[in-house]
Design goal:
Largest sheet: 3 strands, antiparallel
Number of helices: 3
Strand order of the largest sheet: 2-1-3
Strand content: 5-15%
Distance between the termini: 76 Å
Oligomer: single chain
Radius of gyration: 38 Å
Number of strands: 5
Helix content: 55-70%
Order of helices and strands: HEEEHEEH
Structural class: alpha+beta
Length: 158
Amino acid sequence: MISGRSKRFFLSLILFFAFAAIPTAEAQVYKWKDKNGKIVFGDVPPEGASAEKIGLPDLPSSAQDVSRESTRWQDQEYMFQQRRLHREKEETKAAQNEANKKKFCASLRDRQKYLQTIRGRRVARWNQEKGDYDFLTDEDRAAMEDRTREAIDRSACD
C-alpha cells in the first residue's frame, strides 16, 4: 500500500511535469494615462487612448532554467546569511571590546583616585621578593600616578 506521503510526492511530480509541458502564454501589457492624468496598466487599452506596449521579462522556458534560477537564488541567500552572521559577530566583538575598555578605564580612574587620596600618607605594600613590606614614598606614588595618567591618555578614556 502506498503511503500518503508517497502519493503526495507522485502527485507533485506529475503536476510539475504537466505544467512544464504547457507552453507559456504571451501576455501583452499596455501603459496609458487616464482622464485624471494617472498612469494605468492593463492588458487591453481603452479606445482612443495613446497606449504604450510594455515588454515583460522572459520567464524560464524549462525546468533546467528554473533549477538554475533556484540555485542562483540559494547562493545569493547563503551569501546574504554569511554576511549577516559576519556583521553580527563583528558587532558583538565591538560591543565586548567597548565593555572591556570601559572596565579598564574605570579601574585606571579608581587607581588614580586612590593614588590621589594617599598623598602625604605612609602606605605599605607587600614585596614578594623580600617577603616583607615596603613603604611607598611620595616620589614612588607620584611616579605611579604619572604612569596611571599616561595609561588613561593612551587608552583614550573619556
